[in-house]
Structures are given as C-alpha cells and as structure tokens.
Design a protein that fits this description.
FAD; seven-stranded mixed sheet; FAD/NAD-bd_sf; 466 residues; FAD/NAD(P)-binding domain; alpha/beta; flavoprotein; five-stranded parallel sheet; FAD-dep_Monooxygenase_BioMet; D-Amino Acid Oxidase, Chain A, domain 2; monooxygenase
C-alpha cells in the first residue's frame, strides 16, 4: 500500500545532502541531523564527473552554484618535467560522449548548493544534533542526540562518513584502514597571488593538470569560477596516515617535490600552509543494513575509498540518488521498505566495491617507482600502435581516459535503480509463458491508475481478449 515515509539522515555532508534531495523528491518526509554547530564543508576542490553532474543539473543545484562551477577543457597527464604524455579532451569530446559536464568546484560552493537545494525540496536540516543512541531493534527507529532531543524514523540512513556513529551501531568491529602509506596534501591559492609571484603559472590554462613524480603525483585545476588555484599533492609517508594532520612542515613538502617541473616547483613554494589528509578504505562489507532493514549505510560510512579516481563523493551522491528512486517505489506501494533496501544493497554494494578497486589500482600505477614509472607507464602511449578514433583507449590512466571506464563516468544511478527494481519484480513475481509479462512489472507500470480488478489482464492476455 502507498505510504508516507519518515526518513532520517545522520550527517549533512555532500552525500547526505544529495540523498536528502533525492528522497524528498520521492515524496518522503526528510530530516537531516548534523553534529556540527553550523553547516559547512572543509577541504579544497572536488571533481563532479558526468555521472553526478547530471544529478546537479536535474535537481537545480547547478543553477544555485552558478559560475563557481568550472568546466575545464583538457586533462593533461605530464611527466615530472612537465611534458604532456597523454591528453583527454573534456570539451567538446567527453562532454559530448556522456551528455553532461565534467565540472571542478570548491567543496564549500558545492555544499552550499546542495544545502539550499535540500531546503527548497522541503528537507528539515537540524544542526548541533550529534546522534548518541540508536534503537533499531523495533520499528520505527528511535534516535536520541547528545542534547536529549528524540526522533523516530521509518528509516535511518548513516551518511556520517569515516567516523560514522551509525556504522558503529550496526558493525562495531568495522574500522576504516590505511591500506598503504599514501597520503595527500591539499591547498588553495588565489590566482592573482599566484600570477604575481609566479608569472610562469599563466602558461597553464583552463585544464586539469597532473604531474607524475617519484612516489606520488600532483594535480592542479581552477575552482571558484577561476579565481582560485587548487592543488593536491599525493605522496608516500613513512607510516600509515589515519587522521588529518594539520599545519604540516611546508619545508618538508617542498623538499619532497623539489625535482618536479620548475614551474610547478615555484607554484608549490607559494603555498602558505597545508594539511596531510589520510586515504582510508572501508569494507567491502557483507551488509550495509540492520537485520530489520530500517537502518542503512551510504557513502564513506559504507565504502570510503582512496581519492585517485576522484569518485569518493561522487559514489556517495550516487548512493543517495539510487536510494531516492528505491524509496519512491515504497511510497507508491510497489515495494516494501525491506525490498527497497534489498535492491539498494544488491545493486550498489558491488558497484562501490569495483570503484574502490579502480581507485586503488589507479593509485598503484601512480606510485610506481622508477624505472617502471618512466619506461613502462609514461612511454606507453608512444610505444604502442593504436588504431581507431580514440588514442586513449589503451592508456594506463583510467581516470584521465574515461573511455576505458564507461561504467563509471556514464553511469546513471536513477536509471540503474529503475532497472534493478524491474528486474527484482520480474524475478520475484509469476510471469505468463504466453505473453512473457510478469505480474510485478505490470503492477508497477499500470497498477497505479488501473482498478485492482483490471490488474493482471495484460500479463495473462489470451488471443484477442486484451
């Protein structure tokens, strides 16, 4: 039967807000509980690849962010000297192929856009609401915050990231891990300051530039409507990094990257301060949900991954979009809540795991030590004879050659959910050997407007009786 679901989300990060929008669009009453005293997002730049830029457009988020979204023209893969060894054309080629932009944006601007879109969709955002207790043994789920506020939800979603309180309640033994000694420095410098101090920096135009270096890489691109220069410096550390380390010694940063392209070295020297960020992996888990299917995980709480494919936040947002469509079927009376969570886990869990593997593989290829780095990887594009229209089809660079990962960059989470729901209904319900129709699929497509006594006529049509 049709119903109005009360859905709570623990965590108002990028994935949580995306999920809140999608679930509100499904017709649910949505409340987001955020532990912080004010909404916001820390960090630097982030890539919104076509698999999620499509969602920002559909939900109106891109209109809110406006010109602070940047569409770069190229992805330039460079060796340590700065020579371009492989190039991916984003405009018009990649945008034309996938039908949606490949944006870069400041995390803060993205978060503001998602927050405002959530409010416009009727989402209730509650700040300073750190969840302390979760009782999910019976439904509805009961939640209590550290300030004593109590909430009840038909479904609670753990969108609270690496240090998830919800995951700890469900799976107390699960801890994100640093699978390697790889970590990342991040920084932002205004372009006006960079151009003044390093005139050579003007040589790098509207592009995502990636330099391969010994035991690491550097990626730079413009954000904030082209006002700021964003940089990520991936490096090897002498021990696993499991938490953010603030205000690192910049002299050590500059020493680590002293042998890079002289232009890039001067740009790194301008960076006033930086933090070291961990690259942690969670799972793969056997389940993302409670036995009662009234609590479920998403995003980094379920499947944090390394950043080498630029898909961490994107995968979280896909989770939210998928959940929204699945819960819409509950609201319509097509699925039960338990069935919706089953479809979500069955479809999204393997997809997230494959993205974790792609991110890890890409990082391993970045971190190849010499001579493999130069002799095998960087010369690959010039040492093979490639035929056909796409010179990137055999590139080692999975991230910079989206043609090799259609399942990632061309992915449509909402369409995937629709297909998964239909597959579930077709497999679960009886089907007619004559017509090939299943009762569940017919009920989903026509049961919402046909009188109950008419539902089944299409499935079991005989001859001219239809």
């Amino acid at each position: 039967s049709k119903q109005r679901l009360r859905v709570g989300l623990c965590g108002a990060g990028l994935g949580g807000l995306a999920a809140a929008i999608a679930i509100a669009r499904a017709g649910c009453d949505v409340t987001v509980l955020e532990a912080a005293a004010e909404l916001g997002e820390i960090g630097a730049g982030i890539q919104m690849t076509p698999n999620v830029s499509r969602l920002l457009i559909k939900w109106g988020v891109s209109d809110i962010i406006g010109d602070d979204l940047v569409q770069c023209r190229y992805i330039n893969m460079r060796n340590s000297d700065g020579k371009i060894i492989q190039r991916t054309e984003l405009v018009p080629k990649t945008v034309r192929e996938f039908g949606f932009p490949w944006w870069v944006v400041h995390r803060h601007h993205l978060h503001v856009g998602l927050s405002e879109a959530a409010r416009r969709h009727g989402v209730k955002l509650v700040i300073d609401a750190r969840v302390q207790d979760i009782n999910f043994e019976t439904s509805p789920v009961r939640v209590r915050t550290t300030k004593g506020a109590e909430y009840t939800f038909d479904l609670l979603i753990g969108s609270d990231g690496l240090k998830s309180v919800v995951r700890k309640a469900l799976f107390p033994d699960v801890t994100p891990r640093a699978a390697t000694h790889n970590a990342a420095y991040r920084a932002i410098v205004p372009y006006e300051e960079m151009w003044q101090k390093v005139p050579e920096s003007r040589e790098f135009g509207n592009a995502i530039d990636v330099w391969s270096v010994d035991k690491g890489y550097v990626i730079t691109y413009p954000i904030s409507g082209g006002r700021d220069w964003n940089v990520v410096l991936s490096h090897y550390f002498d021990r696993p990094v499991t938490d953010v380390e603030e205000n690192v010694d910049m002299d050590k940063v500059k020493e680590y990257f002293k042998n890079v392209d002289p232009r890039l070295k001067k740009m790194i020297d301008v960076i006033p301060q930086s933090n070291r960020w961990p690259l942690l992996i969670t799972g793969p888990l056997k389940s993302w949900s409670s036995p009662q299917k009234n609590v479920v995980l998403m995003g980094d709480a379920a499947h944090s991954m390394q950043n080498h494919m630029a898909q961490g936040a994107a995968t979280s947002m896909e989770d939210g979009a998928f959940l929204g469509r699945a819960l819409a079927e509950v609201v319509r009376g097509v699925l039960s809540l338990e069935e919706a969570i089953h479809v979500y886990e069955k479809t999204r869990m393997p997809r997230a795991w494959l993205k974790q593997q792609a991110s890890f593989a890409m990082g391993a290829m970045y971190m190849y030590p010499p001579p493999e780095q130069n002799e095998i990887r960087n010369l690959q594009n010039t040492s093979r004879h490639v035929t056909g229209p796409d010179v990137n089809q055999l590139s080692w660079n999975l991230w910079g050659a989206p043609e090799t990962l259609q399942s990632v960059f061309a992915y449509d989470a909402e369409a995937d959910c629709d297909h998964s729901v239909l597959t579930y209904l077709a497999e679960k319900t009886p089907w007619d050997r004559n017509t090939g129709m299943s009762e569940g699929v017919e009920r989903k497509w026509v049961g919402w407007f046909m009188p109950e006594e008419y539902v089944g006529r299409i499935t079991h049509a005989k001859g001219a009786k239809l």
